[in-house]
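Q: Here's a chain of 233 amino acids. Please give me its 3D structure as tokens.
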Amino acid sequence: MSQPTPDLTSLLKLHQKNTMERINCIQIGKIKSVSEKQSCEVELQLKKLVPDHLSPNGVKEAFLTVLVDCPYFVLSGGTSYIDLPIKTGDYCLVLFNDTNIDLWWTQEQVGIPANSRSHSLSDGVAIVGISPSTQARTMDGDKVRIIGKSGAKSSTLSPAARVGDEVKMTSKEDPAMIQFMSTVVSCLQTLATTPTPPGVPPGAPFAPLLASLSAPNSITSKITKGSNEVEIS
């Protein structure tokens, strides 16, 4: 028995379906590794059905190919940029370009693409920062908050400083101020414990010494307790 001939509308719909299934636009990914040349490996967070002759249904679930050498977005302008420490396991949005980007990515040149591939898995760009609802971050809703640690790239990063953090001054930071305060305290202690002879105004013997004291013009101190959060109101 012959199969019915499909009509034009059915053929067009089938063609449209097959085309849309092959186009990559935007997908969720997870960072697998990060390189020093501002690229990463990304595992797309979805599976697809592929033929499998050993399966009872003739198909099986499989992950898409891991994206390699995928550029990731950095917020920048001129020579300034924000360096966020992208880590393995971070989620991202992967945007797939309309055409082959190899010429721009590898040589920073404008030219005719090497081939006609379009919306290919080879031409994705990762934008890190999206998270599932299970990892929702606490949002203030009133101010800009920068949360993290500051310092050199090492295992001993220092907390960031902000208004209200603890400040401490020692003889190492400002020896002149510490010496001045020590002298004042010594004079006050002596005044409190030394009796004054009859007819002599209290403190008169120490007037020359007190008059010679000169407070430092500045005070130097250091922050001893910081915060992992900076707020910009």
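Q: Can you summarize the key feature?
A: The mean pLDDT is 80.
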